[in-house]
Each structure stands twice: as C-alpha cells, then as structure tokens.
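About this split. The held-out portion is used to measure sequence recovery: a designer receives only the structure tokens and must propose an amino acid at every position. Recovery is the fraction of positions where the proposal matches the reference. Here is one held-out target exactly as it appears in the evaluation file.
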C-alpha cells in the first residue's frame, strides 16, 4: 500500500509539471545554481538570499546538455539578478519546457525521500496503519504536491529537516556512529537548502540535552555526552554547508583576512535585514510590510484540506489523552511543531503557506497516532480498511479536480480556489504558474492579443503569448494608463497584482475588482473584456466636502480624456443628477464611507467603479459610475410645478415619522433646471406650525448656479433643527426659491411658495 501511495504522489507531481509555467522564484534558483556550477562564481548567491544547495541540485541536470555562456547574458557582469534571471530563461526559448522538467525532477525525487521518511517514522512509532494514514494525508495534500512540482527550495528544506530530526531521534534511541553521521549530513543538507535551516539545528540543540531528562538518565556525564554528540553533528552540518560553497574562503571586506563561508555570512546578514524589515504581504484586503500574527494561522486554516484539519485535531486529542509517558516519547514532534509554530507567530516575513511545509509531516505523524495498530479501536480489520478508504477518497476528491493547479487550493472556508484571492495571494495562489493555462484559454476564445499584468522573471512571450505589458511588468508604465476608465480590450491580471501586491500603487487595478471576470484560467489569472461604451460619458461630478479629490491632470491621466463636463457640489447638503448622458461621481473615501444616509441613498443608483484605499499621488477617494436615465423623488409632485427657471419635481422626508422635538428633521426637495439663472439664489424650506409661524428653517444651495445646465436635476437637502419645546402636532413644510441678493421669492402659480404635506411631530 505504501508503494502505491508513493507512486500516486510521484505521478501527480510529475504530471503537473508540463502544465505549469515558471514561477517567480524558479528562474532565480535555477539561474544562480547554473551560474555557480558552470563557472564556480558565487556573485549571484547573495541575491538568491539562501544557501546554494537546492540551487545547485535543480541546476545540475542542465549541465547534461548545452547551456548558455554566462558572459553575454545581461546582468552577469554587474551581478544583477533582476536582469540575469530573465536573460537566462530567455536563452531557453523553444526548449523551456525541457529545461523546466529537468530542473523540477530533482525536487520531485526529494519529495519522494520526504514521503518515504514520513512513512518510516510514522510506521516505527504507530505501526503499519499509522504509517499508511500519515502517508495518505501527505500524498494527497495539494500544498505538498504544488511545491514538489516546482524547482524551488521549500520542499528541499522541509524534506532534509524531517530526515535530520528522524535520524536524530533514532540516534538518541540507539546511538551509533553511522546514525550520528547521517544526522550530521542531513543537518548539513537542511542548513544548505534554505536560510531557515538554522531552525533544524535549534531543534537538535533542544532534543540532544533533553533526551537524558526524558529517559531518566540525569547523570551529568550522560548530559555531557549528548552535548558532545550534538557538537559533532553541528560541525559535520557546517562542513556540509561549507562544501556547497566549494569550501570558499575569502575576505568579507577588502584587505581583511579571509574567512570561511564568506558568502554565507553575507546571506545571513541579508536574511537578518529581511527579517527585521518584513516582506510585502496581502491578507484579507490589507497590505503590510511588517506582517500579521494571524497570517500563518489563517493561511493554515484556509489552505489545509478539511480532512487533514479533522484528523490532526483528533490525533492531537488522542496524543494528549495518552498520558505523560506518551507525551515524553513524542518529544521530537512537540519540540518541532511548538518551536516552528512560535517562529511563524513571531515572524514579520509573511511569505505564504509554503513556509508551513516543514511542519506538515510532523503533523501527519501526529495524526498517524490516531491509527496506531495497537489502539483498541483498530482491532477490526474492516474498520482499519474503511478508515483508510475514507482518507484516500477525501484526498482524491480534494486533488483530482485541482490537477494540475494544486497551488491554487483553498478549502471551503475560503470559498474554494475561486474565493482564495480575497484572503491570500502571491505563492498561495498566483506565483506566475498560469501562463500556459492563459495561452490555452485565449486560443479557445480566439483572442490574439492581451493586455497582461505579471511580476515574474519568465517572459510570457516564451509561452506563445502576444501581449501588451501592464504594471509591474518590464517595459510597462509604473501606473496603469486610464486606470479609472480602462481602454477597450482584453486584460489578463494575476490575483497578486489585482490585489495590489508588487505594483507601485496597490489600487492600480481596482477598477477590475468591481467587475466579474470573463474567465479564470488556471484559477490564478483573471481575464476581463472591456467593451467600448455605446455612448460616451459626459460628466464628472465631484463632491467638494472637504475638497474635490481629483485634479484636472489626474482626470486626464486616469480617464484618458479632458473633454468631460466638470461639476463641483456639496454632497452633504445636496445632490446633482446631470442631464443628457452618463458619467461619474467622485468623493473623498471618508465622505463616501461616513454612513450619511443622504449620500448613501443618492449613490444607491450608481455602481462603485474605482476605490483608492490608500493615499498615494491622490488622496483616498471613490468613483461611482452613474448611468443616464430618469430619476424621480420619493414623493413626486402630482403635477410638476414651474417655478421661474426651475420645475419642482417633488420631495422626500428622510428618517422615521413622527419626528421628535430636539432632533433634526431631514427633508429634500427636487428641482429640474429649465433655464440657467444669471444670479445667485437659494432653495428654501420652512416648517410652520398651526399658527403659520415658522418653527424651523433650512435654506441653502448645494450646487452653485454656475454649475447648472439645462436638464439637470438638483436635490437640495434641508436639515431642520426642531425645537425641544415644539408641541406635538402636524407641521406644514413650505418650499420655494428666492434671489439671494434681494431675498425676493420667485413666483409660483397661486403665490410665491409651495405647500407640502404636513409632517407629524410627536413626543
């Protein structure tokens, strides 16, 4: 059974490889490894920010066939990885699939070592069924499969770390020189695979002196022996690390004494800076450099298959119920899982679920304890077989529909793979692996050219894509042209850049966030078709509370036009519905989100088109698209009344009735412009009592006369302060228009005011 599971794991990973384009990190690791193996020069090693073992392993097969000479490649002389990596990958144009397969296959083989070690450890502790259960969880885990099919260092570190702790555990049970040597070599591989390798050494530093305390051998001599043995293991591990650098010995600073591992010291220094400054990451709509304590727990919850979460929880309960002796016997699991969990919670570098990969096999072993052969509930072979079938079926149901896009997995808590972009991006979802899927999709849709946003080193043209680059791609402008109203065409935007990571302005692609994509090739890419409007937009109305958010230059750049009618109005005191065509409303973001029911009511008929969430070259603002059409007041006039250059259309009362004394009463009157007056005016609303005397007055003009055009609909908001001692009775609102300079009222049929329906005031 274990052999079948290993074959299933191997087949899934290998069959996924041909469908995946190179991810963001792969050209860096493959290129740096090839450069060192080809020339012995470590000039690119520090830019990879990790020790070179996995870089050398993935690049080693490339030496079996002719490869590029380094000197002609851009970026080699100046040691610029951002130029070297694209040039290195471009050299393989026409044979990129073969190169990717050769580089990725060693990682698949390391993944098999990882799986086999997991099975052996779980079977040693919990019997055959415990090993099979742990291996089943592993073989059908989409996150494990995703990274096993990529030429990166995540699987290498996770596998070598597991082998190290497993070998150390066996040595501490039955000491022998071969096992000690294996532990040291495995530790060296762990240290050499990734900068995180030092964590494995810390685990051993705890386990070696802890063992005498667990076994009751508390003699100081035994403790000294364990410390000495750990020292030997550490020295051997460092020797292996040094070997991966070709036993480099050079000065760290010019004219100083040479030191071993000089490049590694630089890598550690840069890693320390990285840990201190953090890493740009996205979580649930927010972008940070310094990370979140909740990032990794949330990533684990959303990207781990539900069956795994369930079995892990049950396995943990079973382990805790086993009593102190069992707890102590499982010390390697507790030390690794506890230490690594603490490290993730404290880390400011939120790079993705792949950082959790080293923990998974330890969790699977813990879950395997639930299936231990000696457990009383496992005495029935039928029960054992049924439980395993349940695990296997759950795993198959998880991974088969995903193939080959395992990287995009999210469980039902996130809404599945299609909902994951709302929570996490980058290597959790969109790492540049979907260019082949995009090419197939565009061919099916008969799309010849696409506007493409990407951030990886591999040029999409290498996969047959004819594209116009969008930010942050090379040769693209830093800010998307016409980002407020994109030009017609087909756009393909990765989830990572769509959510604002890797781009200069995180809201660069916000216009697209408010549209449904035409398709989701590979799940990680969003394809949109922007159609040319049937009618041209005619206006942009900006709320000037506190200020109009968009300058003329920003409008011309963001919309690609400078012929719009520009209107400015006080949206807290009134509203404007320009006549004749569709257009936009622009408001400060805080104003739009203030919760003002008047503003919300008048935006309800418009669609949020763009939202600038963060201050950049422009302040935070929102843009709403409003279609052309007829608008009507809540309480239309039975017959519209002509009032000079205006027509009274009706009114509305906002809020519950009866109104209460001491609280404001919110009334709005609606008017349509027939002719544009030449003088300033005011729209009045007086609330009169039974005696005809006004008890509250709310006059004003939210849209200045000079902003009007024929056909516009004006809404004036009248906020009336009701006296606290106002009697409980029906009050009559009257409205009208008067010149501001002379206070002369405009004539209305039958007088100079319009009497509205009575408004009750209660207590």
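Reference sequence for scoring:
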């Amino acid at each position: 059974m274990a052999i079948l599971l290993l074959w299933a794991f191997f087949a899934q990973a290998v069959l996924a490889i041909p469908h995946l384009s190179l991810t963001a990190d792969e050209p860096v690791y493959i290129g740096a490894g090839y450069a060192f193996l080809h020339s012995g020069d470590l000039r690119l090693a520090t830019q990879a920010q990790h020790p070179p073992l996995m870089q050398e392993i993935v690049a080693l097969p490339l030496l079996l066939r002719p490869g590029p000479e380094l000197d002609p490649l851009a970026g080699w002389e100046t040691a610029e990885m951002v130029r070297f990596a694209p040039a290195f990958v471009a050299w393989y144009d026409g044979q990129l699939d073969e190169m990717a397969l050769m580089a990725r296959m060693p990682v698949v083989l390391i993944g098999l070592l990882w799986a086999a070690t997991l099975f052996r450890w779980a079977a040693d502790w919990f019997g055959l069924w415990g090993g099979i259960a742990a291996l089943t969880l592993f073989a059908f885990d989409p996150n494990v499969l995703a990274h096993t099919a990529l030429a990166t260092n995540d699987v290498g570190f996770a596998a070598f770390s597991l082998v190290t702790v497993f070998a150390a555990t066996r040595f501490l049970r039955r000491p022998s020189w071969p096992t000690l040597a294996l532990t040291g070599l495995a530790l060296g591989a762990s240290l050499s695979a990734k900068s995180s390798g030092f964590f494995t050494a810390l685990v051993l530093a705890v386990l070696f002196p802890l063992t005498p305390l667990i076994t009751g051998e508390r003699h100081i001599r035994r403790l000294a022996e364990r410390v000495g043995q750990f020292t030997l293991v550490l020295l051997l591990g460092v020797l292996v690390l040094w070997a991966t650098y070709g036993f480099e010995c050079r000065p760290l600073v010019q004219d100083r004494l040479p030191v071993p591992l000089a490049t590694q010291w630089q890598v550690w220094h840069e890693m320390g800076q990285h840990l201190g400054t953090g890493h740009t990451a996205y979580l649930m709509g927010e972008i940070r450099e310094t990370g979140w304590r909740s990032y990794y727990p949330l990533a684990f919850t959303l990207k781990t298959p539900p069956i795994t979460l369930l079995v892990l929880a049950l396995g943990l309960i079973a382990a805790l119920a086993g009593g102190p002796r069992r707890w102590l016997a499982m010390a390697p699991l507790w030390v690794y899982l506890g230490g690594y969990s603490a490290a993730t919670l404290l880390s400011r570098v939120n790079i993705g679920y792949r950082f959790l990969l080293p923990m998974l096999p330890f969790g699977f072993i813990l879950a395997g304890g639930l299936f231990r052969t000696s457990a009383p509930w496992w005495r029935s072979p039928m029960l054992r077989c049924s439980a395993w079938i349940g695990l296997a079926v759950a795993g198959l149901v998880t991974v088969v529909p995903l193939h080959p896009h395992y990287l995009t997995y999210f469980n039902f808590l996130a809404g599945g793979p299609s909902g994951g972009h709302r929570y996490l991006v980058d290597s959790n979802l969109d790492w540049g692996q979907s260019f082949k899927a995009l090419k197939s999709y565009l061919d099916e849709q008969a799309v010849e050219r696409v506007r493409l946003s990407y951030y990886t080193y591999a040029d999409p043209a290498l996969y047959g894509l004819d594209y116009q680059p969008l930010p942050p791609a090379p040769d693209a402008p830093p800010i998307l042209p016409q980002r407020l109203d994109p030009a017609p065409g087909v756009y393909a935007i990765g989830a990572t850049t769509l959510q604002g990571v890797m781009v200069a302005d995180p809201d660069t692609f916000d216009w697209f966030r408010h549209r449904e994509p035409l398709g989701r090739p590979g799940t990680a890419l969003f394809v949109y078709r922007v159609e040319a409007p049937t009618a041209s937009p005619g206006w942009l109305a900006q709320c000037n509370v506190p200020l109009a958010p968009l300058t003329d230059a920003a409008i011309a750049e963001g919309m690609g036009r400078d012929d719009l009618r520009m209107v400015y109005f006080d949206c807290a005191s009134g509203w404007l519905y320009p006549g004749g065509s569709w257009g936009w409303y622009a408001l400060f973001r805080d104003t739009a989100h203030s919760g003002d029911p008047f503003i919300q009511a008048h935006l309800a008929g418009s669609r949020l088109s763009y939202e600038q969430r963060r201050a950049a070259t422009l302040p935070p603002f929102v843009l709403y698209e409003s279609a052309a059409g007829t608008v009507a007041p809540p309480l239309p006039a039975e017959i519209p009344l002509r009032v000079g250059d205006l027509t009274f259309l009706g009114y509305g009362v906002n809020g519950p009735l009866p109104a209460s004394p001491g609280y404001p009463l919110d009334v709005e009157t609606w008017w349509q412009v027939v002719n544009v007056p030449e003088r300033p005016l005011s729209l009045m609303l007086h609330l009169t009592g039974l005696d005809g005397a006004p008890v509250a007055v709310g006059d004003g003009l939210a849209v200045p006369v000079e902003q009007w055009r024929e056909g516009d609909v004006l809404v004036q908001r009248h906020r009336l302060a009701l006296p606290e001692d106002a009697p409980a009775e029906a009050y009559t609102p009257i409205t009208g228009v008067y010149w501001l300079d002379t206070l002369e009222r405009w004539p209305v049929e039958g007088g100079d005011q319009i009497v509205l329906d009575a408004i009750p005031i209660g207590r």
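Annotator remark: The first helix runs from residue 2 to 16.
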